[in-house]
Amino acid sequence: MSRHHIAQKWTTHAPKLREKWTALLPRPCLACGQPVTKGDRWHVGHIIAAEDGGKPTMQNTAPVHAHCNLSDGGKRGAARVNAARRAVAARDQAESGRRSWR
């Protein structure tokens, strides 16, 4: 489980939010806009991510298809890791005066 979910106590809020959203289905998916129905596999998605300070409330969450939510995951982390790798490569190049083949 990620640090921001632990810090926000999403583990205690998610079942309560899911129960509330289930009663309101069908609703549009937060990611793709197609209807999320009770028979679908779905998650409680963030409108403003917890990492960005979003709170676990009905106003900041919405149903999202499981495949939409899972396909979106990891992009922010990958961007952060890739930026750090580029910074290290640029620093190494500046220090050595040669371009790295990494």
TrEMBL record:
Q: Name one GO molecular function term.
A: endonuclease activity
UniProt KW Hydrolase keyword: yes
Signal sequence extent: none
The record's annotation in Pfam families points to:
HNH (PF01844)
Q: Which organism is it from?
A: Leifsonia virtsii
Keyword set for this entry?
Answer: Endonuclease, Hydrolase, Nuclease
Organism ancestry = Bacteria, Bacillati, Actinomycetota, Actinomycetes, Micrococcales
Highest taxon of the lineage: Bacteria
Q: Which InterPro entries match?
A: HNH, HNH_nuc
Record protein name field: HNH endonuclease
Question: Residue limits of the HNH nuclease domain?
Answer: 19-70
